[in-house]
Amino acid sequence: KKLDVKEIDPYMSNGLMVKGRQEVKRIGFGVSASVVFFQKGVDASCDVLVTHHSFNLPPINTFDPIFQNRFGFLIQHELSLFGFHFLLDAHPEIGNNAQILKTLGAQLKEPFVHRGNPWGWIGKLDKEKTFDEILILHNKFLDECLDESLLMETSLIKIITKINSICLSYSRLI
Questions:
Q1: What is the DSSP letter of 151?
Q2: What is the per-residue burial (b if ≥16 Cβ within 10 Å, else e) of 121-144?
């Protein structure tokens, strides 16, 4: 079945959002299209940035200052921006969900369907694992992602650690 990405994910952009310079020597990858990420890309001499969460484009966009600053930064620095939201959630090999399941030792069993479309994956572990074992694998995965990303700024790591701690605290309540 061929998927209509525009219909499935109409507000979050998928594909080229801003075209920068013609020659590409270095590509940076990040989660969200923020000026902080864009500046990290400039500092790392990137020509193209690829994000999971690019620009959110609802039918009515007021082009608020945050949007204008982000868009203007890209234009000023001749950076290209690609966003792959649905595609990085749904892909069975390189998708975020698939990669996390594989890291935890799970096999992909079936698509996770939301509103009739496959947004991720449901996996099955080969052998039972404790919550602590899954947490260790998850943290190792996050550490590897951080080591390979532009997000090595101490202040961002503190924020990510705090978010991780809050999520862990909440998960123990469920």
A1: -
A2: bebeeeeeeeeeeeeeeeeeeeee
Which residue, chain included where needed, has tokens 């990420």? 37
Q: CB neighbours of 105 closer than 8 A, spacing ≥ 6?
A: 125, 126, 127, 129, 137
Could you read off the pLDDT of 59-77 as tens digits, one per residue?
A: 666 667 878 888 899 999 9
41: closest CA among 153, 164, 161, 145?
A: 153
Residue 56 contacts residue 33 (beta carbons within 8 Å)? no
Tens-digit pLDDT profile for residues 33-68? 899 999 999 999 999 998 888 887 666 666 678 788
Listed in sequence order, the residues at least 6 apart from 138 whose beta carbon sits closer than 8 Å to its beta carbon are: 100, 103, 104
Neighbours of 164 (CB within 10 A): 13
Which residue is it, tokens 């996050």?
142
77-93 burial, b for 16+ CB within 10 Å, e for fewer?
Answer: bebbbbbbbbbbbbbee
Query: What does the block give as tokens for 37?
Result: 């990420």
